[in-house]
Amino acid sequence: MQTLVEFRSLFEPRLEDFFMKKISSYSALTKNQDITELIAYTEKLARGGGKRIRPFLAWLMYQGLAGKKQEAILDASIALEIFHLFGLMHDDIIDRGTDRHGIPTVHLAVMKRLKQQKRIGDLHHIGEGQAMLLGDLLFSWSVEIMTNTIKFGEKKHAQAQQRFFRMVDEVILGQMLDVETMTNSIANMQSIEEKMRLKTASYTCIRPLQIGAALAGTNERIDLFCKNIGLSLGLAFQIQDDFLDLTADQKKIKKTVFSDLTEHQHTIFTQYIFDQGTRAQKNELKSLMGSPLDEKDRPRILELFETSGAFSYGKKQIEAHFNQAEDCLQSFKLKPIAKTGLSDLLMYLRHRQI
Question: What is the spatial distance between Cα 100 and Cα 104, in angstroms, rounded to a whole number?
Answer without folding.
Answer: 6
